[in-house]
Each structure stands twice: as C-alpha cells, then as structure tokens.
Please model this.
Amino acid sequence: MTITTLHVVQPPPPRRPKRRGKWRGKWRTLLIIAGVLSLLGAANGEAIAAAVHQYEINTASYNSAYGHWDEIDLPNDVQVNAIHAAQLSTGKILIVAGSGNDTTKVAPGAYTKTSYDASMFAPGTFRSLLYDPVSGETTPIETPSDMFCAGQTMLPNGDMLVAGGTQRYEDLTPKHAGGVMTVKNENPDNGITFPKGTEFEGPTGQLYKTDSDVIVAPAAKTPQGDGSVKVTASATNVWVDAEAEGDPGKTDQPGQYTIKGLSGNDAKNLYGMNDAMTLDKHDFEGDNKAYVFDPIAEKYTRVGDMNEKRWYPTLTGLPNGEVMATSGLDGNGRILQGQTEVYDPATKVWTAREDLTRYFPTYPAIFQTGVANRLFYSGSNAGYGPADKGRDPGLWNLSNNTFTTVPDLRDPDLMETSSSAWVGPVQNQTIMVVGGGGVGDVDTSTGRIDTIKLDVKDPYFTPGPSLPEGTRYPSVVTLPDDTSLITGGSAAYRGKHGSDNHTARIYHPGTNTLSVAADPSVGRDYHSEALLMPDGRVITLGSNPLFNDQADTEPGTFEQRIEIYTPPYLFHGARPEITQAPGFAQLGDTMVVTSPQAGDIVSARLMRPSAVTHVTDVEQRSVALGLTHTEDGLTLSVPAEPALVPPGYYMLFLVDSTGIPSVAKWVQVGSTVSTMAGMPGMGG
Ligand code: CU
Model:
C-alpha cells in the first residue's frame, strides 16, 4: 500500500474564498490602490480586496478560463434539505428531503423557518420539492414516507425509483434499554402481523415493546424421507425497547419472552428470543417501502416493498432495466450482511437474490460495467460497517457471485466519503476515484484521484493528479465535453473545524490533469450533491455540517442554498443548436439529427441523468455516439449493447470543434415502455 497524499487536518483552516489568477493591467492597479488605501487607513483593505475579487470573477476573461457560479435564492418557505436530487426528463429537478436529518422537537407556536425545518421526523412531516431551473418555479411534492437516506435510480420509462429510507432515528444515549427480539413461530399453517407497540414479557417480568410492525411468517414444512414432515419455526427480527427507564431494562441473560395478548395455541407457538438488552447507542433504522416518482404526473406511487429494510442502500440500474439494491442498515439499525434484491419495473416487485449474497458498506459505489453480469465496486462508500470488511474495490461477477479485487489503489484506507464516476464516455470503461477519508469521525482525508480501466485483463488503478487538499464528499460530474467537474467537499469529517474547501477543479482525461475552476461560494460536505442539467450547467445542493463554526461549538445548520456552475465552455462563443432530433431510439439505431452548425460538430453524447445522494451517483454516464456528417445534418449511431446504454431517458448533446455543447434534447433509449405511450393524445 502506498500512502501518497495523507492529510491530517489542522484546525482551523482558512474559510475565506481564495483569490487566484493573473493580475494584469487595471487589476494590478486596482489592487495597488486598494493596498494604498488600506495602508492609509482610509478604508478596510480586506473589503476592498473582496470587492476587487468580486469584480474579477465576473469578467469575461475570468469566466472563459474558470467558469462562473451563481447562487439561486429560493423563497424561504419552499427551501428543503436536499438529501437527494435527481434530474428528471421533464427538465425539472426533484429534490428529496424526507425528514431531512432533523428531529429537534419544537414547542407548538414556536415555529420559525429554521425550527420548522428542524422538526420534521417527530411529526412525520416529509418533504420533496420540484425545481424547474428554466422558469425558476418550485412545486412542493406530497411525500408519503421518510425517504431520508433512501436509494434512488431512474427507470426505463423515466420514472424515478426510490427505495428504503428512515424508520427510526439514531439514539446515541438511549434512556430505555433495547435489543433485537427474534420472534419465533412454530405454527406452519398461519403467519401473523404484530403491530408496533406489541409487548413482550421477559423471564423476570420486565416488559419491552416493538418499535415497528412486524410480519411473522408461518413455520416451514420440510417432507422427510420416511414420509413424515419436519416443522421448522420461522424467525423474524424486530427491535424492542424496555418500558422501564435505565438499568432495570438491561439484561445480559439470553432468554425466552412471552407475547402479551396471545392465548391458547398461539401463546405456545409464538414467542420471542433475545440475547441481551443494553443501553448502547442505537443506529438509524432502515425502511422497506419503495415508490416510483412519475415526472409527468409529478407524484409518488407506492410499489412493492423490499424484502429487507434498508437505510443507505445503493440502487444500480441493470442492462435489462431491472434495479439491484445492495447494502443498508436494517430495521434494527444493524448493517445488512450482503442481502441483495432486484426490482422488476414491469411487475413492480422485488425479488430476494440469495445467490448474490455479498457484503458491502453502506452506499457502496457499484457500477454496471460494459459487460452484462459484471459490476464494479470502486470502494467508495458512505460509512457504516466495520473498517476491515467489504472495503476493497473489485469486480463482481453476477453469474457465479465471485468477487475479484483490483490492485494499486492509493490511500485504500481513505475511501469512506469518497466519490467515484465514469471518466469521459462509458465506452472507455474508465472509472475515477476521488478523495475520501478514514472510517468514521476522524480527521484523515485524501485528495487522491486514481483511475482504473476495466476492459483490460486484470484491471489495476493508475495514479492521477491530487486535489489541493484532502477532500471528503467531493461531487464529481461528467460534462458533455468529456471533462469532469470536481467540486465541494471538506477536509474533515462533516466539515468539522470549518473545513469546507470552497474549491472546484476540472479533470481532463486526455492529459490526466486538473485545471482550476472558479470557487463555489457555498461550502458543501455531508448530504450534498451535484448534477448536470440539460443546459450544460451543473447544479449543486445540500450540505449538512456538524458545526457552524471553526471551533466546533455551534450545532450545524443544513445548507439550503443552491448554486449553479456555468463551465468555461459556455463562455467560448455561440452554442451549436439541435433543431431536430428523434425523441426515441432503440439500441443499435441511427438517429438523424439536424443542426445549423452540423458541419462543426465533432462529437455527440447521450448523458444519463443523475440521481444522486451522499455524493454517490452510479447513474450518470456519458455514451459516445457514432457520428457521420450528411448533406443537411448528422447521423448518430447508438451502441447496441444494453450494458453500455441501460434503458432510459438520456440528454443528447452535440459538441462543436471548440468544445461548446448544445442544449440537450431528451431521447428515450432502448425500452419499449414509454411514459408517453399511456398519455392521451400521445404516440408510443
Ligand atoms: Cu445520510
């Protein structure tokens, strides 16, 4: 192992945006004047320097070199905690908060904007917001369950699938002892549902109650060789809390518990088993509910429940349009031990895949590679789970559930809170791993960028450039000109010690180098995200620092400001235009596209829209299209392999010879299921 860029954070680092760039001509003069005025005490030198900086970052030459950031100010009453964000094929962005990571209880009548937002979970107030970046309009969306820290992905018909979320918040110092109750059922003929609050009585008479509904299956019947039938009790876990406060609820004696309210045979057949009841920290509990969000009807519809409750799962779209769910914390706050399941969008049902049992830490970055049944886990994850388990990157072969690790990743112990993304077109089969930090709440982090090419025999990581400082939670966004924007993040865990970095870089795959991008003014760390919009700009949202101050004394507030980055390519002249393009293409199809600038178009890309949370985005991918110039336009060819182009909506960008992208047109690829097909007056 080689540790190349280990950073240990020394509090407090500078928070003020840094100046850079060449000071030429009048700027030098302005600076000198500012300096002189400052020396004379005629004005505040810092204020003048800031004003000069403001002036500079708005000049055409600066924007052309580094791009530009614009803050979007949504009205206070519609702002939400952006835990998740997805680019929908209507052009709107769905921002999902759920309860938004706040449980603070607020006295009735004391609601201010801040306190209102800080009291979502307890009263069951869950929020999502649709934002239209073109009109600036916002629409609050009724949100039926707590999607806080769910998984999400886009489906072939353009719907967004969201699965899992929060059943219960963590409790670092529980007042009531608790533990996992295993409910046994020895009756092979009947299952039973116990509602939340069902009481269990322990051997010494202590009472415990369940914190969620639990569905208990019938016992299993197995025919034996001698003609008899063997009955095996079913076992279902549910969390219980002691009714008594403190030590009286504790026990380290394994025992059998009776279930209150049962009589006769039920009382014999149904009972609980528990190993210990403790006052230990209780982690977040996952949920098993799943919904699709229809971008046209603009509403959530419930679909089949997952087999497992999951908090922090990753959803990976597969070549056939199905979706695989991996990892997460279960209904008892414990990390799942590798249970994998697959969602079929046609039946809206999840199927457990015991043949694919494989353990990963939470929010594992698992990508569909260019080969069916071959997934790549980059090692990026969002924390939870032991430091020595499931942390190594590698290729997962779904045909036989084998996992082959890949070597040479630098700073392999600093992968928590890192970010991973495809580099340039997916046909290159190259993934980049950016930043990250040590396991848990530690100050170690890295600015390492490594890449790996997956379509060679025995893939291995190759060193790339380093970010200027250690960076947890970097957002990585693939751009239509094949570069990648890397923005935001913090040097320390959740922005501690005022360590939000306020920097951005652009990665150039051709030279394996970084160039400087303009500084974002809003810092972003935990619970933040960035995504490419069809106009070629990047929107950034969210951030959930632990503290607001460098001394780490003042509790952090959730960052609700939105900022949009306009890359340099949009300051380089007139954009090419797509005048006509088909709205639908099958794999292997050619598409006839017209553009007044057709002769100057050098590349065409299908960009899959992002569905991102916790800087984890296994959705975004850029697909290079074959390009032929014709008399009056372009003929573009779509790859035939569904592993390269999983079915769904894509943004079609044309890019000209100076690297300027068009505004994208939406193309639905590779599916016979069309959202439009079911709409009155619309063809399929
Ligand atoms: Cu989270």
